[in-house]
Amino acid sequence: MAGTFSQIYIQVVFAVKGRENLIREHWKDELHKYISGIIKGKVQKSIIVNGMPDHIHAFIGLRPAMAISDLVRDIKNNSSNFINDKKYVQGKFSWQEGYGAFSYSHSHIDRVYNYILNQEAHHKKKSFKEEYFDLLKKFEIDYNEKYLFEWIEE
Q: What is the C-alpha to C-alpha distance for residues 49 and 12, in angstroms, rounded to an integer?
C-alpha cells in the first residue's frame, strides 16, 4: 500500500482583538511555546512562533489532512484560554476574528524563519498594517479592506 508524503509550509498571522498591545515581554515566550505545543499536539510541525505585543506569526509544516482553518481555530481558542487562565491580562483576552495564511516552498524556510525570528527589528521599520498589506499584495490575494483586521494607526 502506497503512502502519502507531503509537506506544506504555511505562515499564519493573527492579531489581538482591538489590536491592543496585550502580549507582554515577561510572558510572551511562554505563550509562543504554548502555541507551538498546540501545533505539535495536532500532529503538525511547529517551525517557529513569534510576534509582537499585538499579533502573532506561526510558521507551520502542515500535513494535508489538517485544515488550516481548524488548526488556527484551535490555536486561537486554546491560547486565549491559556492567557485567561493564567490571568496575564485584566479582563478577558481574545484574538480578532480572521487570520492570514501564506504558503511557501521548501527553499524559503530559512528566509521565513529569520523574518519571523526578527519581528522586533522588522517592526521598527514597518507597521503591522504595512506588513500585512505587503503580504496580501505579494501573494496576490484579493481582499476587501472592511474584512481585514481592526487597524490602529501607528
A: 9
User: What total of structural domains would you count in the chain?
Assistant: 1
pLDDT band at 121 (very low <50, low <70, confident <90, very high): confident
19: left (phi over 0), alpha (psi -120 to 50) or beta: left
Domain that holds residue 71: 8-147
Question: Is residue 138, in this structure, part of any structural domain at all?
Answer: yes
Give the pTM: 0.86
Per-residue model confidence as pLDDT tens digits over 66-103: 999 999 999 999 999 999 999 999 999 999 999 999 99
Q: Would 152 be classed as within a structural domain?
A: no
Instruction: Specify if 23 maps to a domain.
Output: yes
Residue 23 burial (CB count, 10 A): 20
The CA-to-CA distance between both ends of the chain, in Å, stands at: 56
Residues 6+ apart with CB under 8 A from 153: none
- Do residues 19 and 149 make contact, with C-beta atoms less than 8 angstroms apart? yes
Of 133, 125, 126, the closest CA to residue 149 belongs to: 133
* 40 SS3 class: helix
Cα–Cα distance for residue pair 148/145, rounded to 1 Å: 5
Cell representation of residue 23? 502580549
